[in-house]
Amino acid sequence: MKSKEYYIVIHGKPNGPFSFENLKNQKINRESLIWFDGLDKWERARNIPELQPLFRAVPPPIDPLDIKEEANKMPPIPEPPAIPKQNLEIASNTERFVAFIITQIFALVLFFLLGGSLDEEETWQGLSLEMLYAALGGGIFNGIFYPFFSGNLGHYMMGIKVVSYPSKKEDKSIFSGFLREFLKGGMFYLILPCIWLFFNDQKQNVYDLFVDTIVVRKK
After folding, report:
1. What residues does each domain of the chain span?
2. Using CA of residue 81, residue 167, residue 160, residue 200, what is the dihedral sign?
3. Could you say which of 41, 96, 101, 167 is the most buried, measured as most Cβ atoms within 10 Å of its Cβ?
4. CA-to-CA dists, residue 81 to 34, 75, 84, 209, 219, angstroms
5. Cα gap 141→132, rounded to integer Å
């Protein structure tokens, strides 16, 4: 029995005949015009049952009312968790002063343990050297505690800490801690750094202003 032969219109001209297998290789779609022996006229491919396997199944159009109904069923998108505000309380002048005295006691003990003496006659040159030693000693001895306590030993013992300003993140950088304590040690002999505490809203010393820090109570 002779197999059925198909003709297809391509670019406005009939092409064929093609067997069913060869028809698969032609670029036909549901709207292609097809004819074979037995048809009275050219038919759209979508109307010929045996050609349906050649086309991919296409879903019917979606009813807009169904889309709206489905959207209403969708759960609301959860909002990201709110970032808690850091309501930090500025350390008092008394707390900072006591913390300073504690660090000086530790520094003096270390000074004497290393063979230091206070018997030398005071001169301007000696005072300058003392300021330099105080700055270096304060920077090294106190700065090494910043990665652990966000401050020096006096801060830790008084329950206060150093934070960056205005970000208010804990200052745990040993380099920032060294610089802050270095400036504090060098300015120890000046009156201005201490007086500044009484005029600044954030109770910042001059060295705090240099490194953008404030001292707050631990929560």
Report:
1. 6-65, 93-217
2. negative
3. 96
4. 62, 17, 9, 34, 22
5. 14
